[in-house]
Amino acid sequence: MSCEEPTTSPTPENNITVVSSDGKEFLLDLKLTEQSETLARLISNFEYDRTDVKKDPVPLGNITSAQMQKIIEWLQHHRYYPKWEQNDIHYSTSFTFETWVEEYLNIPNNEMFELLNAANYLNIPRLFSTICRIMASRITGKSAEQIRTVLNIKTDVKNDVYTGIPIQEDSSSSEDGMSEISLSPSPPPI
Amino acid sequence: MTENSAAILEELRSIREENQESFKKLTEEMEEMKKKQSLQVEMMERIIGKLEKMAVKTESVDLKIMEKWNEFPPEIKMECISRMDFETRLNLRRTARAERSLVDSRLYPMDTVNMCHDGIEVESEKNYFLHETDKCAHNKRTSSCGSKLLSYILKTGIIERLHVYLPKDKVNKWVEELKNSQIDTICVKRLIFQSTSKLLTEFFLNKVNKETLESIQVVCRNDANGILETGEFLESPTVINVRRLLILRQFNTVLVLDLIKRWIKHDVQIGQKLFCHTLYPTTFRNFFTLFGDRVVKSEDNYIRIRTDNESKHILIRSLPCKKHAQSLSCHVIPSEQTIIEKEDDYYTSYDLSHYDETDDDYDDFDLFDELGFFDDDSDEEDSDVEDYGFNDEELDDEEDEELDYVQ
């Protein structure tokens, strides 16, 4: 295994340095960067995989050092995993995760949202997809009203027949009548 | 003494034979019972599976706030939404107009959509959703929500299996509402008619996306006023061109002949198949009358005819069928094909006895009723189309015998 330490040691030939938004440097094994489509493309464009090319530090202005640390942990864990296949993306509604992933993502919601942004920015599809699934799993089984609460959505849709909860009215809402559909089974109370 | 012994011996032999016979009979009965029992177990497991899927959704309610959701760009939200199950997406689209337009901006794969007597089921490997239409039918405001939900599903779903069924009293109203809901096309792979009222069948045959459609199955028994009796069904371009057509009902041979003529006229693609039961079993006499000059080869159980396209032949076979009337399969094959392999499992694996109209004891058995899961307040006349047990997985392979034809 390599990297993870913000380093002052000499840069080995198979590593690149990335710099987080708060100025912290991370030494990254080139093998790990293969999981990030953004970094892989950058390395390919600048030919950083060649030993005779000088590698300048790569600034990652959108990613804090804490997020970078977390991402490197992910990359290292999945170092030997097969390449991510995008197939059946829509079918991945399975909410079963390996224990390591559950522990890894056992973080406050806001941190997870930031991590999702970072995974999107660096284009790490396995991490991105996993966080999306985790987030989907966190609102699964909740009623419309509960989802409003969880996602802090300010509603502009009226007449929630299902929960019976009065909702701020809006004249143009409910255009397709679908908001009136009552579902089965009943959701648990809030 | 010897005579006595011989007589006793003879008697013993006959007793043994009798015993053997009754033992054989008992064994057969046991086998039959076992089969029924395993069917019951299977149905129970399916019910338990559905209940478990429902239970997962109603576990604990964790209301940790994820307020940054609103800061996400739509494309990230969409990625999350596409990983949600149907019911959650439905609930999310009810939260605000922005979420609704996001949810509605994409088509979603659905394994099985089942229009059943009690409502609409959407089922996938991990999730199960049931909308009980009758629950909101009595309410003026929500009386049409069933058809609205159905039209929503048909608009936004990429459906693997769609079971089409409506009770007779709902057909006119629902089809009218479906027509008014501006459904462009219905993306479905396997269209399965559980009932064939004219309006309903016409609607689906007209709206289904021909590109995505792989097969049409008619699995209901003869229902009065069904479109099939008029032959209109087989005249629909959708039916003529569908790759696989399976009709598990007794069918007038003339209609089959008519369909084959249409196949020839429309020069349908190689690989196209039809399976059906015929009203009048036995020979290929009718086929000879109609296609005599086209016949390339014929045997007791198959006939091969040429089409107007030199590269295509049509193979018509009579298939062995356990209890049922004669079954026919028609298959468009390349004319140079000499060896026809065994009949496709797609057809032969169906346990046709399940649809045997004479086997009343078997057909009328409904475990849901037995267990009191659903209150069956349906009309008697509707009950014969409520066979939701139709499922590939429960089919056996008894008929899967090798049928090789060498030309």
UniProtKB/TrEMBL annotation, chain A:
Residues 166-190 are annotated as: Disordered. Residues 169-184 have a biased composition (Low complexity). Residues 126-157 form the SKP1 component dimerisation domain. Keywords: Ubl conjugation pathway. Residues 15-79 form the SKP1 component POZ domain. Pfam families: Skp1, Skp1_POZ. PANTHER family: SKP1 (PTHR11165). This is Skp1-related protein. It comes from Caenorhabditis remanei (Caenorhabditis vulgaris).
From TrEMBL, chain B:
Residues 374-407 are annotated as: Disordered. It comes from the Eukaryota. Pfam families: F-box (PF00646). InterPro entries: F-box_dom, She-1-like. The keyword Ligase does not apply. Residues 9-36 form a coiled coil. Residues 69-106 form the F-box domain. Keywords: Coiled coil. This is F-box domain-containing protein. It comes from Caenorhabditis remanei (Caenorhabditis vulgaris).
